[in-house]
Design goal:
Layout (H helix, E strand, L loop, with lengths): L1 H15 L6 H42 L3 H43 L7
Amino acid sequence: MEKRILSYRKYIDELLQQTNVDWTAVIREHLIQVAFFQHERLIHLIVTVTFAILEVVVIGLCVAVFTLGVGLLAIALLVLLVPYVRHYYILENEVQKMYVQYDKLVEKRDGQGKHFR
């Protein structure tokens, strides 16, 4: 998903440099893509928060009654949590940049100055 969102955003940046483009069609497609990425972002937020809560519970369990199994579980959850946080961070930031792209697309379509910033 990371590769897809980065390449899509780059594609829109390249389109914004062009002049003879059907901006209405591009905006329509952009809004569909933003919706897909927002859904992906929501799912990853739920997964990330769930893993974070599990990690806190298991660390609490480690403090209360430490065993090798609980310690290994805490490490395993942490190893999974770090990539989830990184991936969510990328999704969040890229979707925010796509909102800015949308504003620029509307400016191109309407031929006006700044839209929303």
